[in-house]
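Input record, target 12 of the design panel.
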């Protein structure tokens, strides 16, 4: 025989106006009545005695939880019977596991998201500047204390950063050189000035394309590798173990990578310059009817050494940017596989963006300086 639930009620405490006592059955079948009773509770209610409730289920407990949240109270302000405590504890643990609110696509919400994003970017800039200063100080310390220098690690990273990237840099630079020569010849042919393709390809590669292509390749290839390597060590608590052994993670993990990039990026830039010029020579020989000897002679007569210096001078700056961002993002990994992936993506985006911005600023500066 089904038991009829007792009517939910509340009774005010005559000695304490901030305290009420609940009676009846607070179950799913009386949920509407329960909601009415909770709305009727006096505003001054601060304590609830639920020890006289006959039966209670998850619906009743959830309504009580939502009531105390609305009133700014806590679950400790409700006194339950001992045989109800297990149910209350279980419901309390899962009460917040509700579906997330749908994202608001309104103007104010978009403005808020933009503000949060700008704040995060500002923190990233501050962290990068701080990390740069820390590395500069420790590089100077390494000059005073050469025993801190890790030769084996530096040479290993030079091989990974530089030697392994040579085929890719040569291929991309050669193909881009041929594309620039083809496009330039297409335009200049209408004016009978195909010979100026020599200056176009040479100046473009010596000043801009060689160092920019090399930096972008290393930003995608090397910065992501640095972040993934250091981030994996962070998630496995290997960096904490390094500190426990009394070693400095900056000396052990960051500086060897920075030095490897500082050495190899200028060398790769030089190789990219030669490959791009070779692409121009190939197009000149097979499409424009300019023999290689004539092409090189024209280049020797018209190209100034300052174009080479301008392009090569940007390589160390790009190396610092790639190395610092790649290592910093790895050290900021929070310990999960998802965090490693997010930081790796962030390092690639940041390095490519910053390299292009710095290159644009440098191009404007050199142009205004008549270089």
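The sequence produced for target 12 reads:
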């Amino acid at each position: 025989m089904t038991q009829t639930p007792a009517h939910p009620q509340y009774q005010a405490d005559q000695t304490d106006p901030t305290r009420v006592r609940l009676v009846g059955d607070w179950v799913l079948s009386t949920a509407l009545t329960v909601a009415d009773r909770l709305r009727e509770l006096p505003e001054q209610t601060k304590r609830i005695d639920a020890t006289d409730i006959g039966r209670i289920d998850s619906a009743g407990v959830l309504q009580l939880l939502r009531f105390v949240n609305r009133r700014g109270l806590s679950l400790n302000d409700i006194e339950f019977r001992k045989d109800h405590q297990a149910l209350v504890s279980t419901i309390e643990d899962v009460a917040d596991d509700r579906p997330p609110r749908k994202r608001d696509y309104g103007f104010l919400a978009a403005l808020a998201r933009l503000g949060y994003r700008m704040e995060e970017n500002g923190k990233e800039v501050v962290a990068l500047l701080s990390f740069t200063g820390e590395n500069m100080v420790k590089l100077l310390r390494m000059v005073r204390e050469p025993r801190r220098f890790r030769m084996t690690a530096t040479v290993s990273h030079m091989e990974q950063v530089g030697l392994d990237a040579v085929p890719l840099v040569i291929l991309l630079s050669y193909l881009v050189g041929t594309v620039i020569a083809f496009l330039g010849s297409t335009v200049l042919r209408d004016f009978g000035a195909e010979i100026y393709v020599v200056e176009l390809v040479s100046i473009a590669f010596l000043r801009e394309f060689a160092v920019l292509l090399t930096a972008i390749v290393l930003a995608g290839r090397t910065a992501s590798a640095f972040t993934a390597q250091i981030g994996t060590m962070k998630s496995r608590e290997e960096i904490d173990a390094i500190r426990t052994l009394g070693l400095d993670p900056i000396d052990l993990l960051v500086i060897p990578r920075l030095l490897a990039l500082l050495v190899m990026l200028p060398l790769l830039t030089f190789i990219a310059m030669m490959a791009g010029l070779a692409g121009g020579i190939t197009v000149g020989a097979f499409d424009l009817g300019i023999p290689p000897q004539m092409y090189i002679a024209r280049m020797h007569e018209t190209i100034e050494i300052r174009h080479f210096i301008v392009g090569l001078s940007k390589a160390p700056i790009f190396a610092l940017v790639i190395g610092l961002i790649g290592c910093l993002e790895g050290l900021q990994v929070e310990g999960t596989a998802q965090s490693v992936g997010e930081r790796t993506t962030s390092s690639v985006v940041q390095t490519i963006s910053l390299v292009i911005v710095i290159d644009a600023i440098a191009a404007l500066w050199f142009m205004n300086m008549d270089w």
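DSSP finds 13 helices and five strands in the chain.
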